[in-house]
Amino acid sequence: MFLPDDFAGKLPAVSQDQQQPARATVRKGRPGRVGVGSGQPVSEIDERKRRRMISNRESARRSRMRKQRHLDELRCLVNRLRLEKRQMVNRLGVLTYLHHQILLDSCRLRSEHADLSQKLAELRRILALRDLSEFSCNSSCHFSEGMLNQIPSSLIT
User: Is the pTM of this model over 0.70?
Assistant: First the structure.
């Protein structure tokens, strides 16, 4: 059996730099294992992971809040657009009704215009005959009563 004293003279000499203990480190992705990796102490790496995890959670929470806010804005927009559509449909109904009324009035007025134009033309013809009759009477021609009977009764009233 070998005792530590047996190796005392047989080991190479160790310098002062080599005698300092190595720092224990954790390799990335392998929690709980100690090794020589980045040269950082385990507690510092754990603290970084903890801070990164907290930061990721906060980022995810902010992202969810942004998403919820965006959905709320879209819902408000949908409601506003539905209300606007309903108002436009109602307004279109009113305008369609008014357009129809205007078309009816236009047809009625065109008909009245045609009737009145016809009456005016007949009245002008009667006036021309009367003027002709007066001119004829003055020049010894008599206006026949048969011509007066040709005047439509609708013009006399």
Answer: no
Which pair of tokens denotes residue 59?
């980022």
**Locate tokens 């065109």: which residue?**
110
What amino acid occupies position 105?
D
pLDDT mean by block of 10 residues, the chain; 157 residues: 52 52 47 55 89 96 98 98 98 98 97 96 91 72 53 56
Owner of token pair 């009704």: 97
Residue 66, pLDDT score: 98
Task: Report which of 22, 16, 17 is spatially closest to residue 39, judged by C-alpha positions.
Answer: 22
| CB 55, CB 39: distance < 8 Å | no
**Amino acid at residue number 33:** R
In the structure encoding, which two tokens stand for residue 123, read together?
């009245």
3-class SS of residue 150:
coil
Whether 155 and 123 have beta carbons less than 8 Å apart is answered as yes
Query: Token digits for 36?
Result: 């020589």
Strand partners, 25: 35
List residues bridging with 123 in a β-sheet.
Answer: none
Exposure b/e, 122-144, CB count within 10 A at least 16 = b: eeeebeebeeebeeeeeeeeeee
Taking the C-alpha atoms of residue 101 and residue 109, their distance in angstroms, rounded to an integer, is: 12
